[in-house]
UniProtKB/TrEMBL annotation:
Coiled coil: none annotated. Keywords: Hydrolase, Metal-binding, Nuclease, Nucleus. InterPro entries: HARBI1-like, HARBI1_dom. One of its GO terms (cellular component) is nucleus. GO terms for molecular function: hydrolase activity; metal ion binding; nuclease activity. PANTHER family: NUCLEASE HARBI1-LIKE PROTEIN (PTHR22930:SF250), PTHR22930. Its cofactor is a divalent metal cation. Belongs to the HARBI1 family. It comes from Acanthoscelides obtectus (Bean weevil). This is DDE Tnp4 domain-containing protein. Residues 37-186 form the DDE Tnp4 domain. It is found in: Nucleus.
Length: 206
């Protein structure tokens, strides 16, 4: 996976963060945002291991719960492929390297996430029960901008149908396949393959 660090890059320097924020506000409106975050389930054959049941998600399907972030240009900026399907999105985020990296910047850079996550200085989520028009307006704007990560999931699974169907290979090989697909997705973006694949209907599995 030596190419992963070349093609999947999360901004961590002040210069890279500023470039990511500038790119975001050129296309969207919420300031200090550098991208969007979510998880998607990749179906697998249930591993024949001691803790195989941990891979069964809320839809009673064996899967990996894969966290990704993307930027305004729909490029994948980080990917975490280590978690069984039963693990909740919020736990993956809390323990992720991306969360630890962003925690150092304290309100200077953040991601957009859905309401399943708790709000934090580095993750903006919608109001669960908006009470005012400004809160409702923020939620509409948040939803419109956060959908970029759903588009990325949709593109990824339509570019690479192996990710949209059950992967029947040994579990040890699956993370490499997912990362390779993410790399190829970013290469396609670099080559300006702009075919509109739509978005993923990413309902909560937990």
């Amino acid at each position: 996976m030596e190419k992963a660090g070349q093609w999947i890059v999360f901004p961590t320097t002040e210069r890279d963060l500023n470039e990511a924020k500038t790119s975001w506000v050129a296309k969207y409106r919420i300031p200090t945002v550098i991208g969007a975050l979510d998880c998607t389930h990749i179906q697998i054959k249930k591993p024949e291991v001691q803790f195989g049941d941990e891979y069964i998600n809320g839809k009673n399907v064996a899967s990996l719960n894969v966290q990704m972030t993307c930027d305004a240009m729909e490029r994948i900026t980080s990917i975490d492929v280590q978690w069984p399907g039963s693990v909740h999105d919020s736990r993956i985020w809390i323990q992720s390297a991306v969360q630890q990296k962003l925690a150092r910047f304290q309100w200077n850079a953040c991601l957009l996430g859905d309401s399943g996550y708790g709000i934090s200085p580095s993750l903006l989520t919608p109001f669960r029960q908006p009470q005012t028009e400004s809160e409702r307006r923020y939620n509409r704007l948040h939803s419109k901008e956060r959908v970029v990560i759903e588009r990325v999931f949709g593109q990824l699974k339509q570019r690479f149908p192996i990710l949209a169907n059950r992967i029947r290979l040994p579990i040890r090989n699956v993370p490499k396949i997912i990362i390779c697909c993410a790399i190829l997705h970013n290469i396609a973006k670099y080559l300006q393959d702009e075919w509109d694949y739509g978005i993923e209907n990413n309902n909560d599995d937990h």
